[in-house]
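User: Predict structure, ligand FE2/S2 (inorganic) cluster.
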Amino acid sequence: MSATDTGESLALHAISLTLNGQSHQLEVHPWTTLLDLLREQLQLTGTKKGCDHGQCGACTVLLDGKRINSCLTLAVMHDGAELTTIEGLASGDRLHPLQAAFIKHDAFQCGYCTPGQICSAVGLAREGKAASAEQIREMMSGNLCRCGAYSNILAAIEEALPECRQEVQS
Ligand code: FES
Ligand code: FES
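Assistant: Predicted complex:
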């Protein structure tokens, strides 16, 4: 690789993102993950860094409506994408049904995994596949909870899923 090539590959890249409904023009290094862009560059710290290796789900966000581990993907790959984080789920003062259900069912202890759990469950609702508690458990298995609040998390998701699906269809 020539010096020029190296210089070009290390340069900042311009991307545009629609983030929680707002348009952003950004400059990112080619090695910046989507998670670091959110937390370090945009100070959106609701999305958590757990393992940084795709193993815990704490960093889950919705990219073009689909759940994704934001630690495993580079920001520069998503020019023009639409991104939703935990900060973008509520409508004004009205919590997203999954946020309300997590509170109602006390579905957290330390809360560190919670933003990822909720974003993942929103993605799950959009996928429209989970029809039973067993399937919810299986399809949420990429989101770990070190506090072991799994039974309450499951209860919250089971309750909110029908309302979430209605929102997707309307
Ligand atoms: Fe991304 Fe753990 S921080 S999967
Ligand atoms: Fe603590 Fe899940 S509530 S890690």
